[in-house]
Amino acid sequence: MNKPLEVFLGILTAVGGFVEIGELTFSLDAGVDFGYRLLWVSLFGTIGIIVYGEMAGRVAAVRGQPVFGVIRERVGFGAGLATLLAANLINLLTCAAEIGGVAIVWQLLAGWPYRALVAFAFVFIVLTVWLLPFEWIERVFGLGGLMMLVFLVVALREGPDWGTLAAGLVPGWPNDATGSRLVLYAFYGVALLSSVMLPYETYFYAAGAIEDGWTPKDITLNRVVVIVGFLLGSLLSVALIAIGAQFFEPRGAKPALPGLAALPAAREFGHAGLLLALGGMFFAFAGAAIETGLSGAYNLAHFFGWPWGKSRPPRNAARFCASWIAIFALAALVVGSGIDPVDVVEWSIVLAVVVLPLSYFPLLVVAADRRIMGEHANGGLANALGVFYLVVVTLAALCAIPLFALTRGGRG
Asked: For site-directed labelling of 381, which of 4, 123, 255, 342 has its Cα 20 to 30 A away?
């Protein structure tokens, strides 16, 4: 494949895979409760995931080393194992929420029983991962997720207040800055930051770079895909916040289920809009389920030194294959038990921010080490941004669980 086409497909895949069920849920709710006031968090988090996503891809391209290989090397077995267990618990919860989201979308389309659709979603995802090569998994679900762009069109057609929207891109407090509202505002800020900077994104991205055979020659490709793809993808998050502010808040409604997010598209474009929105959510949720399930298996294989990779025949990477199948099965059991996927996604988002410092610190250390990375080590700007975001996510990690308890998961 020629380089321009590879870059183009990489960018489109990054855009289509940017939003998953957690970001959709919290972006809409933030728009309902605070209008455009939290737009800056989405932009801020996007820059953060660009910084660490670029580092993860660059380390993978130069050293051929995935994130959990870096973590074990830098923090040792004990601390690395604790990080692995926490990260894979979050992967499991996130995967469960995404599978539940797929089942909800199918239920809206077909009207079948939810638990049966959870089982069908599990079978569909396992067969997809088993049968499709890695690059096709990326492209099918990333490009299919581009149907989510209908939300951007809807947000524009709803007629945003551009002055107020622009003001929301600047950090600040809500107008009604009472005690309880400030706590709720802080909770949504932490949750939105976590949903944009979910740790599995760097795990999966680095593993994917190795699966695709990246070398130091691909560092420019890595940088372009991460910066352009994630920035364009962040427009979807902005659009969802705007739809929460423009469509749901005036009606005094908060979309309790992900499928309700399709209502504005249905109002604007009728049946076609509904199908585009639900189709985009299906590809986004299914793609995120696959990424989190595979990320969990990658993490185990990278940490313990097992043979791994979608390009290997299953018999040559048996523990890796057994791991992702087990993660998908456990995730399906979690939401199939009757637990609300929205409750699961709330816990996964809150716990995810706790793991971010443990994942990002070793990555920053390796990416900045000229003895290891040579001429491809971090420059001054990358180091400064890396340290700044590490401090921010550490503070967010300390606040996440208390804020979740005080606001009852954003319910006030």
From this structure: 4
DSSP 62-102: HH---HHHHHHHHHHHHHHHHHHHHHHHHHHHHHHHHHHHH
State how far the Cα of 346 lies from the Cα of 395, in Å rounded to an integer: 19
Phi and psi torsions of 388, nearest 5°: -60, -50
Residue 180 contacts residue 33 (beta carbons within 8 Å): no
Q: Report yes or no on 50 lying in a domain.
A: yes
**Does an H or E element contain 5, and which?**
helix 3-16
9 found inside a domain = no
Q: Residue 5 falls within a domain, yes or no?
A: no
Q: For residue 74, what is the domain's CATH number?
A: 1.20.1740.10
Q: What is the domain extent for residue 83?
A: 14-407
Secondary structure letter of residue 161 according to DSSP: -
Q: Tell me the whole-structure pTM to 2 decimals.
A: 0.93
**Tally of domains in the chain:** 1
Summarised one tens digit per residue, pLDDT across range 119-170 is 999 999 999 999 999 888 988 998 999 999 999 999 999 888 899 999 999 9
Q: How far apart are CA 295 and CA 312, in angstroms?
A: 16
Q: What is the dihedral of CA 101, 278, 287, 58, to 10 degrees?
A: -120
What are the pLDDT digits (tens) for 309-362? Answer: 988 888 999 999 999 999 999 999 999 998 888 889 888 988 899 899 988 999
d(CA 225, CA 202) in angstroms, rounded, equals: 13
C-beta pairs of 122-129 under 8 Å, 24+ apart in sequence:
122/328, 122/329, 122/331, 122/332, 124/286, 125/99, 125/286, 125/289, 125/290, 125/293, 125/328, 126/325, 126/328, 128/286, 128/290, 129/290, 129/293, 129/294, 129/310, 129/324, 129/328
E strands present in 242-284? none
Residue 3 domain-assigned?
Answer: no
The identity of residue 250, as a single letter, is P
Q: CA 108, CA 287: separation in Å to the nearest integer?
A: 19
Three-state helix/strand/coil letters over 122-140: HHHHHHHHHHCCHHHHHHH
CA torsion through residues 237, 238, 244, 247, sign: negative
